[in-house]
């Protein structure tokens, strides 16, 4: 029987959409299947608190969307995408009142770091200057690098634990800013390779900013969708795939799903070895997320934070390192590291006139159902006295609810698997190609493949390129 489609992509997160676009552009007839009634995976925006308040459900700030190699090649602005760039990319207040900030300008950031100015420039400038060349290597599967010398110099620092590389810095504020960046990795700061996370996020900011999407993250999903459809692609929504038999005939099938879900859907088609490998895949800490409807902007003690798209709360590097370690061990911190975004300061479409939104989460043990609302609110209140009085509505997600919302977030892990040294390039399994499964023409393209979490679409891009090469 002739295949109805050349390719079927299951899942419409950034990687599924990217894979579908690459395949469709190559001339294949592609069907994209999404389990929910809206496209987007982690790129969705909803009225979670009160009518008229538009909250990003998962992804909110998009450093890698702006700096990644693939999205910039697509005409997404023609399909509704508009980036908004806050003046300050990220602010990090300390208990003593000081604030360290990440700015678009490398020198502008370094100038506020006192005695650490030269060390900061020495660390980040080579990566910023050669971003386009190097990002094609570290935002990719393990391969012979295009720029081995430059990548090697980056790797010497990137492979170190964030707590070790922090010794380059003497100022408490610099070390805190560094720790907040590294904590995006959702693992202890003493883990090997956590410096890579901080370096990439900071360099991406200096190269392309930390943009938010006008109207919400859903707009990025919609622009990718609109472009895919304009290319001739087909979409089927509201069809949650639970078994491979539900998928139409196709020459190849690509899954934007976690290894656990891939096993549930198609495990009986795989070799014993590949099933064993997927079963060994490790998921990390989860998140507890809050969205707030506010009567006014957050009343920060430091007015410097009023211009920050993202705010990192958690204190010094010692405080953040302790909090992340406790969570990794299955415990809870009453001084959690909190990531907060305040999009409505820069995007008036997010809330009714005169009111505002806030988006925040902290890390918690995998599968946790503990309510961390008080801990998050107290952490914000510490740096913004009177914050609690501005709350007129709120919504929470524990890890179980996050996984129910998106089955790829196992145990609430929004990175779709621990991104440590043993799973950085071998995710989800050690194979010649991480995107190939053991069954011919079935591929995996989710954030559980290289280069891992983040809204950049590179997993889908490389998986589709691999499939095209195999098919032709």
Task: Present the secondary structure layout.
Layout: E1 5-10, H1 14-25, E2 30-33, E3 45-46, E4 55-56, H2 63-67, E5 83-84, E6 88-93, E7 99-103, H3 106-111, H4 117-129, H5 131-138, H6 148-158, H7 162-165, H8 172-182, H9 194-208, E8 212-213, H10 218-230, E9 234-236, E10 250-255, H11 259-266, H12 272-279, E11 286-294, E12 308-313, H13 317-328, E13 338-341, E14 356-364, H14 373-383, E15 391-397, H15 399-405, E16 442-444, H16 458-471
Parallel strand pairs: 1-2, 1-10, 2-9, 6-12, 10-16
Antiparallel strand pairs: 3-4, 5-8, 6-7, 11-14, 11-15, 12-13, 13-14
Helix pairs in contact: 1-10, 1-16, 4-9, 6-9, 8-9, 8-13
Largest sheet: 7 strands, mixed
What percent of residues adopt helix (DSSP H or I)?
A: 25-40%
**Mean pLDDT across residues:** 95
| Oligomeric assembly | single chain
Structural class: alpha/beta
Low-confidence stretches: none
Shape: globular
Taken as a percent bin, the fraction of beta residues is: 15-25%
How far is it from the N-terminal to the C-terminal residue, by CA?
20 Å
CATH class group of the domain at 5-43 and 63-79 and 214-281 and 409-471: Alpha Beta
Pfam families: NAD_binding_8
Protein name: FAD-dependent oxidoreductase
């Amino acid at each position: 029987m002739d295949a109805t489609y050349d390719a079927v992509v299951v899942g419409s997160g950034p990687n599924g959409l990217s894979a579908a676009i690459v395949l469709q552009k190559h001339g294949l007839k592609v069907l994209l299947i999404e389990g929910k009634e809206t496209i987007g995976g982690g790129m969705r925006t909803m009225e979670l608190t009160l009518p008229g308040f538009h909250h990003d459900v998962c992804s909110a700030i998009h450093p890698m969307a702006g700096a990644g190699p693939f999205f910039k090649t697509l005409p997404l602005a023609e399909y509704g995408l508009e980036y908004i760039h806050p003046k300050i990319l990220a602010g990090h207040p300390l208990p003593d009142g000081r604030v360290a900030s990440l700015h678009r300008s490398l020198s502008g950031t370094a100038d506020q770091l006192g005695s650490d100015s030269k060390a900061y420039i020495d660390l980040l400038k080579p990566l910023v200057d050669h971003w386009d060349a190097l990002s094609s290597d570290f935002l990719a599967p393990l391969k012979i690098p295009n720029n081995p010398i430059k990548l090697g110099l980056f790797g010497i620092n990137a492979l170190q634990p964030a707590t070790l590389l922090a010794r380059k810095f003497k100022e408490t504020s610099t070390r805190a800013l560094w720790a907040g960046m590294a904590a995006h990795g959702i693992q202890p700061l003493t883990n090997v390779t956590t410096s890579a996370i901080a370096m990439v996020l900071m360099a991406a900011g200096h190269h392309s900013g930390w943009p938010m999407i006008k109207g919400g993250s859903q707009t990025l999903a919609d622009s990718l969708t609109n472009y895919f459809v304009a290319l001739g692609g087909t979409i089927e929504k509201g069809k949650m795939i639970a078994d491979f038999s539900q998928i139409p005939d196709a020459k190849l099938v690509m899954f934007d799903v976690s290894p656990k879900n891939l096993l549930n859907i198609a495990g009986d088609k795989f070799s014993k070895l590949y099933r064993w490998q997927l079963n060994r895949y490790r998921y990390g800490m989860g998140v507890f997320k809050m969205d707030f409807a506010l009567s006014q902007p957050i009343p920060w003690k430091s007015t410097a934070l009023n211009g920050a798209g993202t705010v990192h709360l958690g204190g010094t590097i010692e405080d953040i390192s302790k909090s992340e370690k406790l969570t990794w061990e299955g415990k809870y911190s009453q001084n959690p590291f909190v990531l907060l975004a305040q999009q409505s300061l820069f995007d008036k479409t997010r809330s009714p006139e005169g009111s505002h939104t806030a988006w925040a989460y902290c890390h918690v043990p995998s599968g946790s159902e503990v309510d961390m609302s008080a801990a998050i609110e107290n952490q914000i209140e510490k740096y913004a006295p009177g914050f609690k009085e501005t709350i007129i509505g709120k919504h929470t997600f524990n890890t179980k609810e996050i996984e129910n919302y998106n089955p790829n977030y196992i145990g609430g892990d929004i990175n779709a698997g621990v991104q440590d040294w043993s799973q950085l390039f071998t995710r989800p399994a050690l194979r010649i190609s991480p995107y190939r499964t053991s069954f011919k023409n079935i591929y995996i393209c989710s954030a559980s493949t290289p280069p891992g979490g983040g809204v950049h679409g590179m997993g889908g891009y490389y998986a589709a390129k691999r499939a095209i090469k195999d098919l032709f």
